[in-house]
Write a structure and sequence with these properties.
alpha/beta, seven-stranded mixed β-sheet, Glutaredoxin, 166 residues, 40% helix, 7 helices
Length: 166
């Protein structure tokens, strides 16, 4: 009986960690360095602050990611449906040239930044617990995370978060 109780406690603890839905970014994540298409560096916090008072859809992707490329038409549909939303694309491409060519080739409109450490290292990818891309995050006009994890641009929760008014 005692062993079953311990197993249950461990299982509940494990599940609660996986169900965590942060509403704000950690300081470490906010201080992560990003690079724009002109190779100018900014922190993630600076990028978010540029769009204060606007809803932001963050799309974490890479030019080599088949699922990301399949999702681009869905994102473009969202851009037409929600023109007031800022579309912030964070590439985890480690090859900068491939990232820039991907943005151009697929004509992806929005704000573009690169996380040069890729999807395995860095404070922002650690905060996101990034294990799969594409990854979509919705941030409201006050900087609060409305949706922490979606992997499909047509996800009902993603669309609901974009429609949410504060």
């Amino acid at each position: 009986m005692f062993k079953k109780g311990i197993i249950l406690v461990v299982l509940i603890s494990f599940m609660s960690c996986n169900l965590e839905k942060p509403t704000v970014f950690s300081e470490k994540a906010l201080n992560e360095k990003l690079y724009d298409l002109n190779d100018v560096s900014s922190t993630f916090k600076q990028v978010l602050n540029q769009h204060k008072s606007k809803k932001i859809l963050i799309d974490v992707w890479a030019s080599w990611c088949r699922d990301c490329l399949v999702g681009i038409p869905k994102v473009k549909k969202l851009q037409k449906q929600f023109p007031e939303v800022v579309f912030l694309f964070l590439s985890v491409d480690e090859r900068i040239g491939a990232w820039k060519r991907g943005v151009e080739r697929y004509q992806i409109k929005g704000q573009h930044y690169n996380l040069p450490k890729g999807m395995k290292e860095g404070d922002l990818v650690d905060f996101l617990n990034l294990s799969w891309i594409p990854r979509y995050v919705v941030v409201d006009e006050n900087g609060k995370i409305l949706l922490f994890k979606a992997t499909d641009a047509s996800d009902e929760d993603l669309i609901k978060a974009l429609k949410t008014e504060i």
